[in-house]
Fold this protein.
Amino acid sequence: MRLELLEDRHLAAVAALLDDPDTLRFTRIPEPPARGFEREWLARYQSARGDGSAEAFAAVDDDGTFLGLALAPEFDREGAEVELGYITAPAARGRGVAREMLRLLTEWAFEQGAQRIVLIINVDNVASERVAARCGYTREGVMRSIHLKQGIRTDAALWSRLPSDG
């Protein structure tokens, strides 16, 4: 598996992710996503790419098959802190893809100078929390009622990793 910059050629696969109930349930993506959300999302990341404040990658296998998204939605370059996220395509789940995406994304973030990486994971997303733990992240605690979606407030666990964590 490799990470490649998210580009127009990935939009159909990203749009398919937006039809997945678990993707919508466990992310901050609006539900339902507005028509053309994937194109707006790509434009946001491409714009942020210019100043290094965010980045988005498509995870693909050796044949170029889309496996998911590996995201850095917020990168504070001055503070050397970045939030990372990952979304595995439904067909790729249960095969270690999320763990490999997060491993590669973490490596990228440290290479970019990050001194603190955070993950914000919906507390109901047990599989994602397992991925974080397996990738050496530390669960710092729960941020209660942190996000409002469809009139419901949700809790999220805050996970972090520092370069000294190994």
User: Anything to note?
Assistant: The chain has a mean pLDDT of 96. The first strand starts at residue 2 and ends at 5. The first helix runs from residue 11 to 17.
